[in-house]
Amino acid sequence: MEYLAAVGRIVDIPARIDPRNEFVIRVNLINRNPKNISALKVVLSSVSTGVIREEIDTTLNPFESKAVSARVKLDPLTHPVQDTLKVVLSVNGQPLEPTIFEKFEVISYSEIKPVKSERKGSFLKWVNETTYVNEGNVKGVKVIEEETSLLGSLFLRSSPKSFTIAKGGKRFNAWELSLEPSGQVTIRVVRSYQPVLWLLLLALAGFVIYRFMRSSVQLIKEASAISYREGGVSELKVVLRVSNRSSNPYVKLTVMDRVPMIAEVEHDSMGTLKPATVFNDGRGSVVKWELENLDRHEERILAYKIRLKLSVLGQFSLPKGSVRFYTEKNVKFVTKSNTVTIKP
């Protein structure tokens, strides 16, 4: 008697499949007849996407029960999908009914992780470059954090630009990455203290230039009202401070201070160091002192009083004084004082 092939089957496939992991599809076969089946083919395929395509060749003895399986490894970047597994059995090329369908789902996942990191250094400058890749099958978002300090942030710049977050009493630089599957981005962080060095060098250069260019002898002019009349200033005391700021002595110093036309010098009010002369050059009175020398770091104080011809109610200024001096090798220098403003 010739028996038709009658094969029972039960299919086992995971309901949820992670494409990163290998999985097993198992088919349990039962030969229901005393017929020997020497060429049985099991075809496994996914209906919607075609991500599964496996064939299993096997045999079945009369009334034999057997489990056959296929180990399947999907592409890790397989998109998440709900699909159906189709199982078709055929004997000697003739399909057996019924065709079996089993539903399954390829799940979604995202995994953003560093794949390459490089650090370069130079004088007072460090560059870190870290490349991140989304090895998932859907778009992923991840916040990368790096602990820092307020001072450290002043010397840091990055691409993409970071933002600052605080948690647990600590400060972090952070970058929010949003990557498509297989997408990548490189975070470049530069820490440079070179600007601090340049500023220090610039400040040092400025200080050196200032010390080199400034006058060794300084003339400071001060004035204060000492008498008032009719609500305005009528008398002033003027003080000139001549100081040697260097470690070298100077000789033949001539200090001159001009008195404005609206005032006149009180000759009987000179300080300890009397002026050599007081004269009028047509633009007002000039008080002149002659000093033989000024030792290193020495200061001389010159003082006199002036009386205003009319009391002044508002603000006014006194002209600058000047000092001419020589080095011991007879090199001449001249410097001026500050301007003094009188505020009633």
Secondary structure category: mainly beta
Count the domains.
Answer: 3
What CATH architecture of the largest domain would you give? Sandwich
Identify the CATH homologous superfamily of the largest domain.
ntegrin, alpha v. Chain A, domain 4
Radius of gyration: 49 Å
CATH topology annotation of the largest domain: Immunoglobulin-like
The average pLDDT value, as a whole number, equals 91
Name of the level-1 CATH class of the largest domain: Mainly Beta
What is the terminal-to-terminal distance? Answer: 137 Å
Apparent shape: rod-shaped
Strand order of the largest sheet: 2-8-7-4-5
Measured by DSSP, the beta-strand proportion falls in over 45%
Helix content: under 10%
Low-confidence stretches: none
How would you briefly describe this protein structure?
The chain is mostly beta strands. 7% of the residues lie in helices and 60% in strands.
Provide an overview of this structure.
By secondary structure, the chain is mainly beta. It folds into three domains: 7-106, Immunoglobulins (Immunoglobulin-like, Sandwich), CATH 2.60.40; 112-195, Immunoglobulin-like, CATH 2.60.40; 215-342, Sandwich (Immunoglobulin-like). It has two helices and 26 strands. The longest helix is centred in the middle third of the chain and has 20 residues, at 194-213. The mean pLDDT is 91.
